[in-house]
Amino acid sequence: MKNAVIVYYHPYNGSFCHAVLEATKKGLTTAGFAIDVIDLQADQFDSVMSSADLLGFVKHQMIDEQAKQYAQRLQRATELVFIFPIWWELMPAMVKGFIDKVVFPGSTYEYAKTITGMASSLPNLKQTTVITTMNTPKYIYQFVFGNALKKAMISGTLRKTGLKKVKWLSLSGVKSRTQAKRENWLRMIEKRMAVK
Amino acid sequence: MKNAVIVYYHPYNGSFCHAVLEATKKGLTTAGFAIDVIDLQADQFDSVMSSADLLGFVKHQMIDEQAKQYAQRLQRATELVFIFPIWWELMPAMVKGFIDKVVFPGSTYEYAKTITGMASSLPNLKQTTVITTMNTPKYIYQFVFGNALKKAMISGTLRKTGLKKVKWLSLSGVKSRTQAKRENWLRMIEKRMAVK
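Above: the input entities. Below: the structure tokens describing the complete assembly.
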């Protein structure tokens, strides 16, 4: 089975991020995937760790019902895609909350004798793509801000918890691009997803 | 007047972060500051940007009442301190939400002809200290994860919006430290705050 889970967040449906979501869905459908979209805004996901959630982390037992349900949906994923904007050089609070509450020991990973000390508990997952939009230009983000999202989320979270083939697709300087460039990006994304 | 605003987040009152908060308050009191603690968890701050908040950002008008009140409290600050844990190499969702919703054009900064394109609208603020706790060892955080918090929050948010004298005090490898080492840290923090 080809199951794609898309974790999506943007508060505005007219955003470029939303167009990226549509292009991603189109491409994955062409490739024959069943698609499950986790729309964090539509779900009004509570992104904050309560003291009960924190204690649950220590005990390897998820508390938050919505987070548990998300973790179950991730179990079925063969392909995982994140789509969100970069604000203040990082993911928005909502997406950080998804990481804090859903990337959980005993659910999506286990502690293990690996280089990072963790191994994935998502056995079906083959590839993960993180697609972000930002207004910061590419080289400024790399040389001044150290590709902070890549370091923290790709290396420090997804690969750390044992995921293989994690790719970051960064659409940068979005506000200053022409309509034609943006449409090119959407076609490129649809194509990339269609051959997965 | 010496006014300190402390932005604090940790869901568990028995945490080392909470002890850091107490040491900070003690030191600042010795130094003669009036102290205003923004306790994000106690306030149950809604850390997520709604579409109305996003539109407000574009129009330079804050919408969220709690965020507006926080911005007003920041106006009075001569000293600003952030205290929070690092989770997954970054600030928790709650703290990212504070940045997303309170660091706002027309409130805490203005667009201006500076290197970063922004200038601070917090005219009383002289110094900012970001105190973080993490279990990751210092050199791993620096060389593998690129000091992601420093790049994104210190450079990419606070300094970018025109704040001067922003310092990061990183307490690393917390879980593996002795009780004596942690008590040393608390004394060091109290001392540093007492001479401001």
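Note for the figure: The CA atoms of residues 32 and 78 of chain B lie 12 Å apart.
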